[in-house]
Amino acid sequence: MEIRREQLIRYITPLREGGSLPALAEAADELKYVVKFSGAGHGFKALIAEFIGTEVARALGFRVPEAVFLDIDEDFGRTEGDEEIQDLLKNSQGLNLGLHFLSGAMTMDPYVNNVDAMTASRIVWLDAFLTNVDRTVRNTNMLIWNHELWLIDHGASFIFHHSWSDLEKAAMSPFPYIKDHALLGRATLLCEADKELRQKITPRTLCKIVDAVPDEWLHWENSELTPGMIRGAYKKFLTTRLANSDIFVNAAIEAQKAR
Fold it and tell me: In this structure, is the dihedral angle defined by the CA atoms of residues 188, 194, 197 and 203, taken in order, positive or negative?
């Protein structure tokens, strides 16, 4: 995998309130990106989840913005007047993550925008696979751009890496949070989606995606885990979960019936 690397040159505006403070910024290639900063929220873990989640979705055929590695030097954002943002940028020097900005995109509303059963089932499968807790009716993290559905914001995936305990159990989890998914009610073809998506992605592809995570993101404070151990854990989680997809598919079907 080849992921472009660019230098950030201009901070434009924060995109929403919250602990992570993602921002719209411009890089040296003169393109605008939604930037996820290493100095915010869950730090490198959020960037890893965002990157792996985005690239897994892309490998499965979903529309997702291009992911680009973005460098921040010590002068970036020095003239920013907001002290909180200044601190964020100072703590994010080095390599960060950007997603190509979809200018003019509209938030997908599950009550207004029609999504067919197979598309809904495929998205529910993806989020159950990634253990992504953040695609609810309140915050769908889906956009309509050029009359097409795009998926964004996978930083809340891989909930296991916040506690980092019992990896095998986490990989085999039925993922109960799927009950809150924005599209669960329309996902009536989950078994069909499971069959299709399992054929689209292989353990080798998953390992290549994990191998593309920058080494800079794999040095964690207050942790004895080496970069190799961290990579290995993500690979094991993803490949084990793929091999046992019936667990989270059946759980999603049961959650759907419970509604």
Answer: positive
